[in-house]
Design a protein that fits this description.
The chain contains 26 helices and 12 strands. It is of the alpha+beta class. The protein has 3 domains: 62 residues; 198 residues, Alpha-Beta Complex (set domain protein methyltransferase, domain 1), CATH 3.90.1410.10; 183 residues, Alpha-Beta Complex (set domain protein methyltransferase, domain 2), CATH 3.90.1420. Strands 1-2-10-7 form a 4-stranded mixed beta sheet, with no helix packed on it. Strands 3-9-8 form a 3-stranded antiparallel beta sheet, with no helix packed on it.
C-alpha cells in the first residue's frame, strides 16, 4: 500500500512529448522492464503490480497522450454506408445505442425466427493477422519470433497503425470502436484491489504486467538508438504516437473482439496436410485471427453457438439463436466461458453464469510423512501435487473438476490405500476422477473429501462483503462502473462457492440426494466423522484464489466459430508468464 500512497505525492511532470525527453523516457521504460521481469509469487504479486502501475502512470504523465477524439454515434452512418457498399445486407437489423453496460448493440428491424440468417460479413472487411503479415509490418513480424508465434500481438500493432492512417480502408470501422474499455487493463489500483479473493485477481495482474512489458519492449524497438530496416517501414505517425494509452487501447480492442476464422476449405486443408505432414502443424496456415466489423457489436446472452465461416465464399454468417421480435435487441452466445474470461478480456460479468468457475490453490505439504507416495500417485494420474484446481458453477454440473476430486481423494488416503491405488493400471487408477466408481468399493476417505471441500469453500466465502453492502454500491452513482464490475465478480465468486458448500454438505450426509443425483443406488458410505478440520496453510492450501485460466471453447462444426472466442490451443499460447513476451488476448466485449 506504500507504493499506492507514494504515487499520490509525485509531482506531475511537464506536459511534453514522450520522445522529446528521451533520456527520462528511456530511464522509466528500462525500470519498467526490470520490474516486469522480476520473479514474483502469489504473496508478493500485489506489491509488484503497484510498482509497475506507479511506473506506468509516470510514463503516461510524461507522454501526455492525446485523447481519442470523435463521437462514436456520429460516425455510425458512415460505418453503415461502408458496410453496405461492401456487400453487407442490413435490411433486417439496425444499430442502436443501448447505453449503460450494453453500449452500441444490434436491434431487430422486423420479427426474426430462430435460425434465420441475420448477418453476413465478407472476409475483405475483416482486420486479420494474415493481413498484418502482408502489410508494412511483414519484415518486423518475420524478424521477431514472438510476433510469429503470437499473431494477436501483430494484429494489435496493425490496428494501432491503421487507426492513425487517415486513408485506411478500415477507418469507418475503427472510428466506431470504443475509445476505452472496462477490461481490467483500465482498472485503477483500487478497482484492481477489489478483485482480491476472486479468480480474476491474479489473471488481471498477470495481463497488466504482460502488457506493460510489451509496451516497454516495443518502445525500445521503435525508439532505440540503432536504425533497423524492419522498424523503418512502420508508418512514422504510428511510431511517434506509440504511447502506453495507444497500445493499451489496441490490445483491449483486439482482446474484446478477437476470433479465429477458417481461410482454407476442407479440401484445401487436406491438400496442405499431404505436403507437410501433420495437419496440426498447419493450424496457423489454414486459419487466421480476425476482427469482424458489425458482428462484433452484437452483445452476449446465454444460448448456443450460431455463427460459422465459409472459406469458399469468404464470408462469416450469423444466424438467430432464438426468435427475436421487431425492436428487440439481438444477442449471440460468446461461448462457454467463465466470468474470469468475460471480465478480464471482455469487460463485463455474467450473472448466474452456468459456465463459471472458481480456482482454488491446493498442494501436498512437503512435511506430510506420506508426501512421496501421494506425489507418485498424483503424477501417475498426471495431476500436479501443488497448483490451481477448479470448482464449477452448480448448473447441471458437479462442483469439482475430475482433477480436483482425484486430488482430494489422494490427499486423504492412508498409506494402505495409496499403495493399493498405485498398483492399479492407469485405466483403473483414473477411476479416482469419477464421482462414483462402479464395481469399486469407495475409498474410506471419500466423505472426508467432501467435508474438506465444504470447509475450504466456507473459508473463501468469509472473505467477501455482505449482499446488503453490494446493493448500496450498485445504486451509488459515485461508484465507478469498473468498481461495480469488481463487486459483481466478488458476488459471482461467492455464489459458486456457496453452491459448492451446499452440494458438499448434501452429498456427504444425504444418501437419497446422492441417489437422485447419480440416478443409481450408491454404496453405503457409513457415517461421516464430524471432526474433519478445515484446511490450513500448513496443509498446502492458501487463502486467496488464483487463476491461470484455460478458457474453453467448444466448436460444433468443421468451420464453426466459437462465438467471440478462440481455440484452446490459441489460448494456451496466450498464457502469461514472467519468462514469455505475450499479450493475453482472448475476445468480444461491451460495445
Amino acid at each position: 500500500m506504500g507504493r499506492k500512497s507514494r504515487s499520490k505525492h509525485v509531482a506531475k511532470p511537464p506536459a511534453i512529448s514522450a520522445y522529446s525527453n528521451k533520456k527520462e523516457m528511456d530511464r522509466l521504460v528500462q525500470k519498467l522492464l526490470n520490474t516486469c521481469v522480476k520473479p514474483t509469487t502469489r504473496k508478493d504479486e500485489w506489491e509488484n503490480y503497484l510498482e509497475i502501475q506507479f511506473l506506468v502512470e509516470r510514463i503516461r504523465q510524461y507522454q501526455n497522450s492525446k485523447p481519442f477524439s470523435g463521437n462514436r454515434e456520429e460516425k455510425l452512418p458512415l460505418f453503415v454506408d461502408w458496410l453496405k457498399s461492401n456487400g453487407v445486407n442490413m435490411q433486417d437489423i439496425v444499430l442502436e445505442n443501448y447505453g449503460g453496460e450494453y453500449g452500441i448493440g444490434v436491434k431487430a428491424a422486423k420479427d426474426i425466427k430462430m435460425d434465420d440468417e441475420i448477418l453476413q460479413v465478407p472476409y475483405k472487411l475483416m482486420l486479420t493477422s494474415e493481413k498484418a503479415e502482408e502489410s508494412y509490418l511483414v519484415d518486423l513480424i518475420k524478424s521477431r519470433k514472438m510476433l510469429i508465434e503470437m499473431p494477436n500481438i501483430s494484429l494489435a500493432l496493425y490496428l494501432h497503425c491503421e487507426r492513425l492512417n487517415p486513408e485506411s480502408f478500415y477507418k469507418p470501422y475503427i472510428d466506431v470502436l470504443p475509445k476505452e474499455y472496462n477490461t481490467t487493463l483500465y482498472f485503477s489500483s483500487k478497482e484492481m484491489e477489489a478483485l482480491k479473493g476472486t479468480s480474476a485477481f491474479s489473471t488481471a495482474i498477470s495481463q497488466y504486467k504482460s502488457i506493460a512489458r510489451q509496451y516497454g519492449m516495443f518502445f525500445n524497438l521503435m525508439h532505440g538508438g540503432t536504425a533497423m530496416p524492419e522498424v523503418e517501414k512502420i508508418p512514422l505517425t504510428a511510431k511517434n504516437e506509440f504511447t502506453y494509452d495507444a497500445y493499451r487501447w489496441a490490445v483491449a480492442s483486439v482482446s474484446t473482439r478477437l476470433n479465429r476464422i477458417a481461410i482454407l476449405t476442407k479440401e484445401e486443408k487436406q491438400e496442405l496436410c499431404k505436403h507437410g505432414g501433420s495437419c496440426h502443424d498447419h493450424h496457423a496456415k489454414d486459419s487466421t485471427l480476425a476482427l469482424i466489423p458489425m458482428w462484433d457489436m452484437i452483445n452476449h446472452s446465454l444460448g448456443q453457438i450460431s455463427t460459422d465461416c465459409d472459406p469458399t465464399l469468404k464470408v462469416c454468417k450469423s444466424y438467430a439463436m432464438q426468435d427475436f421480435k421487431s425492436g428487440e435487441q439481438i444477442k449471440i452466445f460468446y461461448g462457454a466461458r467463465s466470468n474470469v474470461g468475460f471480465l478480464v478480456y471482455n469487460g463485463f460479468v455474467v450473472e448466474n453464469n452456468p459456465y463459471d468457475r472458481v480456482d482454488i490453490q491446493l498442494g501436498v505439504s512437503s512435511n506430510d510423512k506420506l508426501y512421496k507416495k501421494r506425489v507418485q500417485l498424483l503424477e501417475r494420474l498426471r495431476i500436479h501435487s501443488r497448483g490451481s484446481f477448479h470448482i464449477f458453477a452448480m448448473v447441471e454440473n458437479l462442483p469439482t473438476s475430475p482433477e480436483l476430486l482425484a486430488f482430494l481423494r489422494v490427499f486423504h488416503m492412508n498409506e494402505e490405500e495409496l499403495d493399493s491405488w498405485y498398483e492399479k493400471d492407469l485405466f483403473g487408477a483414473n477411476g479416482l476422477k469419477d464421482i462414483y466408481m462402479p464395481n469399486t468399493r469407495p475409498i474410506e476417505a471419500d466423505l472426508k473429501c467432501w467435508k474438506y471441500l465444504e470447509n475450504r469453500a466456507e473459508l473463501l466465502v468469509r472473505g467477501f462483503k455482505k449482499t446488503e453492502v453490494e446493493e448500496e454500491i450498485f445504486s451509488n452513482p459515485e461508484v465507478s462502473e469498473r468498481m461495480k464490475l469488481a463487486i459483481r465478480m466478488q458476488r459471482e465468486t461467492r455464489r459458486v462457492l456457496e453452491s459448492c458448500q451446499e452440494f458438499c454438505y448434501n452429498f456427504a450426509l444425504d444418501g437419497p440426494f446422492r441417489e437422485k443425483l447419480l440416478g443409481s443406488s450408491m454404496p453405503d458410505y457409513g457415517t461421516l466423522a464430524t471432526s474433519v478440520a478445515p484446511p490450513t496453510e500448513e496443509e498446502g492450501c492458501e487463502r486467496d484464489t488464483d487463476a491461470d485460466i484455460q478458457l474453453l471453447s467448444k466448436v460444433t462444426a468443421e468451420n464453426m466459430i466459437s462465438e467471440k472466442n478462440l481455440t484452446e490451443t490459441d489460448l494456451k499460447k496466450n498464457e502469461i508468464s514472467n519468462q514469455t513476451e505475450e499479450i493475453n488476448l482472448p475476445i468480444p466485449a461491451v460495445n
